[in-house]
Amino acid sequence: MASTSDIRNGLCIKFNHDIYKIIEFLHVKPGKGPAFVRTKLRSLTNGKVLDNTFSAGHKIDEVRVETQNFQFLYAEGDQFHFMNTETYEQITLDKKVLDAPDLLKEGTVVMVQINTETELPLSVDMPASIVLEVTYAEPGVKGNTATNATKPAKVETGASVNVPLFINEGDKIKIDTATGSYMERVKE
Description:
The chain is mainly beta. It contains no helices and 16 strands. The strands form three sheets. It has a six-stranded antiparallel sheet, with no helix packed on it. A five-stranded antiparallel sheet has the order 9-8-7-10-11, with no helix packed on it. The radius of gyration is 20 Å and the shape is flat. The mean pLDDT is about 85. Pfam families: EFP, EFP_N, Elong-fact-P_C. It comes from Flavobacterium paronense. Keywords: Cytoplasm, Elongation factor, Protein biosynthesis.
C-alpha cells in the first residue's frame, strides 16, 4: 500500500475495480482545511480519462509493474504489433492503449509497462520526441504572416502537425510525442 505522498506521473494504481495510470497530479495545500492531491487518471483497460481528488494521507493500492523495451513492427487496423528487444517475443496491443499511435514509426523503440502479477501489458511509453519526415506541406507565402504563423503538414506516419511556414516537403522535423506539436527542424 502506498499513500498520496508516493503519487507521481506514470504510477499505476488499482482504483474503482480497474487499473489506472496517473498522467497528471498536483499537491494542493489550501490555507484553510486539509491538504489534498488532485489527479488525472487514465484507465488502462478502456482509455478513459478521469479526474479524481485524494485527501492527504489516503492509502492507494499500487500495481507492481515491470518496464521492458519493445520495438514497433507494424500496425494492422487498430492492432499494433511489437517485439521485445531482448527475447524477440511479439505482442499485439490495441490502439486505445497507446498515447500517440499516429506518431508511431516502424522501428521505434518504446517502453511497455507489464503487470508483474498477470504478465499483461498495461501501457506504452513513447520516447519524449520523435523525428519524422514531412510528406506534404503547402508552400508558405512570404509576406502574408503575422507573428508565429503556422500551417498544417502531413508526416510520414499520416499524422497532421502544425508547423512554421518555412517547413517544406522532405524536411525532417522533431515532434513532441506528449503534445503532438512541432519542436524543431532537424538537419542531417
